C-alpha cells in the first residue's frame, strides 16, 4: 500500500490540486482557496459547487455570434433594436463585454474564440471564421436575418491580432462586404479587455476602412513571405 507524502487528507489534496490547475494559481494560493472552502459553511461550499455545475451544464456558445450564453440565440442577437447589419469581430467574449460596456456600439458581434499564432501552431481551423463568412453570405443565418453590410475588425492591436485581422479581411474580400477596423486609439501591443471605456469609445467612432495597402503592408511582414 502506497503512503502519501502529504500531511493533508486525500480529499483536501485533490481539492488543492484542482485549484492549482487554474491559470495564475500557484500551490500556496491553491492551499488558501482550499482552506477557505473548508472553513466555509456546507451551504456556501455547495453553492460554489452548484454554480460550477450550472455553468458547465447550461452555458454554451450562441449559434450566431459564438458569444457565451445560456440561451440560443443570445440576448444580443435576439435584440431587434440593434443594427445587425454591422458585425464587430472580437477575439474573446471578454473583449465583447469590454466594448459593450462603453455603450457606444449598437450593432452585432462575432466572437472568433481565439486568434492565429503560427509560432504556436494555432491556425485558421481553431477560430470561428467560417461561421462569420456564413453570416455574411447567407443573411438568413444572421441575427434578425439582416444582410451584413459592414464587418468591423476589433482584434487586439498586436502581432497575432493583426495577422488574424489580415486573414479575416482577405476572406471577406470576395464577399463584397465593407470591412473596417477600430481606430488606433488602442495602443499597439495592448489588450482590449484592459482598455478604459473612453479609449474604446474613441476606437469605435474612429474606425477606418481596411484598404489594399494595409493588406499589402501586413503581408510584407509575414515571416512566410520573407518579411
Mean pLDDT, nearest integer?
87
Q: Count of helical segments?
A: 9
CATH architecture of the largest domain: 3-Layer(aba) Sandwich
CATH class of the largest domain: Alpha Beta
Strand adjacency order, main sheet = 4-3-5-6-7
CATH topology of the largest domain: Dna Topoisomerase Vi A Subunit, Chain: A, domain 2
End-to-end gap: 60 Å
Describe the protein's architecture and organization:
It is a single chain. The protein has nine helices and seven strands. The chain has 227 residues and is an alpha/beta fold. The chain folds into two domains: 10-58, Helicase, Ruva Protein, domain 3 (Orthogonal Bundle), CATH 1.10.8; 68-225, Dna Topoisomerase Vi A Subunit, Chain: A, domain 2 (3-Layer(aba) Sandwich). A five-stranded mixed beta sheet has the order 4-3-5-6-7. A two-stranded antiparallel sheet has the order 1-2. The longest helix is centred in the N-terminal third of the chain and has 17 residues, at 42-58. The radius of gyration is 22 Å and the shape is elongated. The mean pLDDT is 87.
Question: Which features characterize this protein?
Answer:
five-stranded mixed beta sheet; alpha/beta; Helicase, Ruva Protein, domain 3; 2 domains; elongated; about 230 residues; Dna Topoisomerase Vi A Subunit, Chain: A, domain 2; two-stranded antiparallel ribbon; single chain
Amino acid at each position: 500500500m502506497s503512503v502519501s507524502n502529504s500531511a493533508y487528507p486525500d480529499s483536501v489534496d485533490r481539492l488543492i490540486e484542482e485549484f492549482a490547475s487554474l491559470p495564475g494559481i500557484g500551490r500556496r494560493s491553491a492551499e488558501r482557496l482550499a482552506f477557505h472552502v473548508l472553513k466555509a459553511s456546507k451551504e456556501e461550499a455547495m453553492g460554489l459547487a452548484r454554480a460550477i455545475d450550472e455553468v458547465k451544464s447550461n452555458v454554451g456558445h450562441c449559434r450566431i455570434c459564438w458569444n457565451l450564453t445560456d440561451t440560443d440565440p443570445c440576448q444580443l442577437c435576439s435584440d431587434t433594436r440593434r443594427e445587425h447589419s454591422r458585425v464587430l469581430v472580437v477575439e474573446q467574449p471578454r473583449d465583447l463585454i469590454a466594448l459593450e460596456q462603453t455603450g457606444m456600439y449598437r450593432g452585432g458581434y462575432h466572437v472568433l474564440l481565439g486568434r492565429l499564432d503560427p509560432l504556436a501552431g494555432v491556425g485558421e481551423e481553431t477560430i470561428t471564421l467560417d461561421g462569420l463568412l456564413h453570416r455574411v453570405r447567407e443573411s438568413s443565418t444572421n441575427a434578425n436575418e439582416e444582410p451584413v453590410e459592414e464587418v468591423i475588425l476589433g482584434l487586439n492591436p498586436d502581432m497575432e491580432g493583426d495577422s488574424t485581422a489580415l486573414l479575416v479581411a482577405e476572406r471577406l474580400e470576395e464577399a463584397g462586404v465593407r470591412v473596417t477596423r477600430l481606430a488606433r486609439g488602442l495602443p499597439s501591443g495592448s489588450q482590449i479587455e484592459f482598455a478604459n471605456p473612453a479609449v474604446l469609445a474613441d476606437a469605435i467612432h474612429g474606425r477606418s476602412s481596411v484598404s489594399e495597402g494595409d493588406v499589402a503592408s501586413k503581408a510584407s511582414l509575414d515571416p512566410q513571405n520573407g518579411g
